[in-house]
Amino acid sequence: MTKSKSRSLIVGAIGVIALAGLILIGCQAGPSGNPGVSSFSKGVITAKGSIFVNGIEFDTAGAAVTVDDQAGAADAALRVGMVVSVKGTIDSATGTGTATEVRYAKNLEGIVDVEGIDLAAGTFTVFGQTIQTDPTTVFEGVADLASLAAGDRVEVSGVADAIAAVIRASRVEKKSASGEDFDIKGTVSASAAGTFTLTSPAFTSDLTVDYSGTLAAGIVDGAFVEVKFSTFSFPTITTSADKVSLEDELRASDGERTEVSGVVSDLTAGAATTTFTVDGVNVSADNGLVAGLVSGVPVEVKGTMSGAVLVADVVKVERESTVELEGNITASSVNVTAKTLTLNGVVLLIDSRTIFRDDSSTPITGFGLADLMTTAHIEVSAYPDSSVSPAVAVATKVERKNPDTEVSIKSPVSAKTTNQLTMLGVTVDTSSASFHQPSDTPYADQAAFLAAIVLDSTVVKVKGSSSGASFTATEAQVDD
Q: How far is the C-alpha of 132 from the C-alpha of 142, rounded, in Å?
């Protein structure tokens, strides 16, 4: 994507805040009593009850927690969907961790632009910057992207995608319209008296920042900063900043066991090793670990820091969630030991990266698989995977909702006949269904609907009722 014409931020008097330096961590006893390996992890919080990050459960009882520059924050301030950095130790015997420091910093907070929401693309814009959502994005204070409106104030957490020039949002929270300062983060360039340019790999367009007063000595070209401003004229972007602050990011140290999630950029294949960048971290991986890896895909990388380079021993490409399910689950459909749940006849594997969130009016603290041992209405996002028997898909997000009557499956179609579809091994009876195009316009007839389906490719959403491994559809719609 080509960056468009720069927008301007008109900045007033400047205040400067410098964050405390990194805490250096030594080895300490892990949960099993074994010495823990010094570690750094950066990724999405996928569940609470301690915190789960990159598949590791970190005990945060003794951790120093910082939330948006506010040190001493309570663990309760850490929410599912936030991208956090964690320093601590990992117990290799149990695969669990003990956090000594946890830091969260949002990507931006601002106003949704006029005509900035594109439901088909799953995007919206703030300050002209594109935010990409997907089925795993956690929404707080608003049901989903369709419930956002121009002028809404939002906080966004996610990772930069330099290839698409977007922020891939893991969490979007609708905030009070009368909140504190707006803010946005980026790297300083082209600095001159009274002005600099704010850049980021995720920016659709760079921002010109004009200011009065004197910047701190450390705010020079290449510095990573946060720009805060309290006034905003919509839709014409006009601001008056309260402060420009240095952002002292928590980073991995030499020799630390390191796990990072993000989007691949700067991919260069060598004779024996491949180098690339993930969320600002330079990675080197043996070519055998990266077969098929391309720029722009989300990955999780694990390895050990050697100087400023993460030498990888695991590179995992994150799969796109093309499956969505909604319905009621009972205790008999949950197997905590096997870590599976069955919804609408579809068996789903739960792994350590599955996002668990209770979005009901009576939320459970530390909501997880065991909490589904009572009847609940849930929504699940997943991806098909035939290798995870007995499941047919891996759940990427499980959300508990208020009681509802909707029962649905959205997935690729693997087989079709005149009155029947096969979806994730479930037989769907379509003999009494209505058939709709992506635009919601009805098809001329069932034959036209079936003709639009390419097996193992076209995604269809069916609504109706479920009984065992059979599903009776009242509505069937081809997805975009």
A: 16
Domain assignment present for 93: no
Considering only residues 469 and 314, tell me which one the structure prediction assigns the higher pLDDT: 314
DSSP character at residue 137 = P
Let me know: does 350 contact 342? Beta carbons within 8 Å: no
pLDDT in tens, 412-424: 999 999 999 999 9
Look at residue 267 and tell me if it is in a domain: yes
Confidence of residue 14 (pLDDT cuts 50, 70, 90): very low
pTM score of the predicted model: 0.87
CA distance 39 to 27: 9
| CA nearest neighbour of 209 among 8, 32, 391, 432 | 8
Domain C-terminal end among 317, 347, 363: 317
Across all residues in the chain, what is the average pLDDT? 88
Cβ partners under 8 Å of residue 15, min gap 6: 242, 243, 245
User: Can you give the residue range of the structural domain that contains 263?
Assistant: 259-317
Task: Judge whether 320 and 383 are in contact, CB under 8 Å.
Answer: yes
Cα 90 to Cα 112: distance, rounded to the nearest angstrom: 40
Is the residue at 394 inside a domain?
A: yes
Q: Give residue 186's Cα distance to chain centre.
A: 19
Q: What is the DSSP string of 224-281?
A: EEEEEEEEE-SSS--EEEEEEEE-------TT-EEEEEEEEEEEEE-SSEEEEEETTE
CA–CA distances in Å: residue 223 to residues 15, 130, 186, 199, 279: 16, 23, 8, 10, 16
